[in-house]
Design a protein that fits this description.
This protein is α+β, with helices and mostly antiparallel strands. It has helices at about 1-10, 30-35, 100-105, 125-140, 150-160, 245-250, 300-310, and strands at about 15, 70-75, 85-90, 105-110, 110-115, 120-125, 175-180, 195-205, 215-220, 255-260, 270, 280, 285-290, 315-325, 330-334. About 20% of the residues lie in helices and about 25% in strands. The strands form three sheets. Strands 1, 2, 3, 4, 5, 6, 7 and 8 form an eight-stranded antiparallel sheet that branches. It has a four-stranded mixed sheet with strand order 12-13-14-15. The longest helix is centred in the middle third of the chain and has 14 residues, at about 125-140. The model is unreliable at about 1-45 (pLDDT under 50). The structure holds pyridoxal-5'-phosphate (PLP). Keywords: Amino-acid biosynthesis, Aminotransferase, Branched-chain amino acid biosynthesis, Pyridoxal phosphate, Transferase.
């Protein structure tokens, strides 16, 4: 199934229609960046030649952070409008110790990828869907958010500026991480007075070290990922630190990841730490129905659309986790 998802995903990537841009196009860099780039002034900010790559071991990419050269930063003014963003060299950012994100976790993120085609051109995977999901998440976390156009533009600029970091076709992808956070200072619990949207990128290989081989998932019966009424249905940063303990325990026991159950009855299958799950039987593909505790993955939606087009019966239902002496099975709760 994972193989199927991967090939379906490839059919949904979108061409990236931005042209080569030069340093002049992205003129506003901070002083440090400008001086670092002064030597390069006559050259384009980034090289878009098809044969130009950074020096990396493309055959052994894991899912670790190898920051690409440029990040995109856009600030939100007091009136809730995002101003024109700009690219700058990847680097640390300054935050007040009392920033809303550091104290109260007011932030959401997204994850999307740029792919390189055999002819060198770049493709993005449905970035407009990430933009819409970020808007929904921002509403839940009481934050202003970039418009869909601003979001997609930021992704395109980040991908193109870092084109040398997009792995050769078939060797991996450029993972692109948009992050929206309450960056303004606040003491009492409340929404931050200012917001920052950042997009950075890193070349990656498979998320799981198992690659395309089967995963060994630990069904978690103690810790839960999300509860009804919480923020499990959006990509709030607050959903992730609480799963680390369960994930670490599962890994120490030799498992690849954790399968979470619902928090009320500890009976229904929900999702893994960072991906949705499907149960496949013959020509029927089932996935847990979303109800606010499960993230509505863009891969999930795409798999359902394409599988259905290809004649599979696709159902969104409650799947019961049932234990048998030597095996586990998931049964539809009809
Ligand atoms: C908890 C969780 N579920 C599902 C997904 C899959 O989402 P998508 O298919 O949009 O990448 C993610 C992605 O990071 C996630 O963190």
């Amino acid at each position: 199934m994972i193989k199927a998802i991967s090939s379906l995903r490839k059919t949904l990537v979108l061409p990236l229609h931005l042209h080569i841009r030069t340093l002049q196009t992205f003129a506003k860099y901070n002083a440090q960046a400008a001086s670092a780039l002064r030597e390069e002034r006559k050259k384009p900010l980034y090289q878009n030649g098809d044969d130009e790559y950074v020096d990396l071991d493309w055959d052994n990419l894991g899912f670790g952070l190898t920051p690409a050269d440029y990040m995109y930063v856009m600030k939100c003014s007091k009136d809730g409008e995002f101003t024109q963003g700009e690219l700058s060299p990847y680097g640390n950012i300054q935050l007040s110790p009392s920033a809303g994100v550091l104290n109260y976790g007011q932030a959401i993120y997204e994850g999307t990828k740029a792919y390189r085609k055999e002819d060198g051109k770049l493709l993005l995977f449905r970035p407009d869907h990430n933009a819409v999901r970020m808007k929904l998440g921002a509403e839940r976390m009481l934050m202003p958010s970039p418009s869909v156009d601003q979001f997609v533009n930021a992704i395109k600029q980040t991908a193109l500026a870092n084109k040398r970091w997009v792995p050769p076709a078939g060797k991996g992808t450029l993972y692109i991480r948009p992050l929206l956070m309450g960056s303004g200072p606040i003491l009492g619990l409340g929404p931050a007075p200012e917001y920052t949207f950042i997009v950075y990128a890193s070349p990656v290989g498979n998320y799981f070290k198992e690659g395309m081989a089967a995963l060994n998932l630990y069904v978690e019966e103690e810790y839960v990922r999300a509860a009804p009424g919480g923020a499990g249905g959006v990509k709030s940063i607050t959903n992730y630190a609480p799963v680390l303990k369960a994930l670490s325990r599962a890994k120490s026991r030799g498992f690849s990841d954790v399968l979470y159950l619902d928090s009320v009855k500890k009976k229904y299958l929900e999702e893994a730490s960072s991906c949705n799950v499907f149960v496949v039987k013959g020509r029927t593909i089932s996935t847990p129905a979303t109800n606010g505790t499960i993230l509505e993955g863009i891969t999930r939606k795409s798999v359902m659309e394409i599988a259905s087009d290809q004649g599979y019966q696709v159902t969104q239902i409650r799947l019961i986790h049932s234990k048998h002496p030597n095996t586990l099975s998931f049964t539809p709760d009809l």
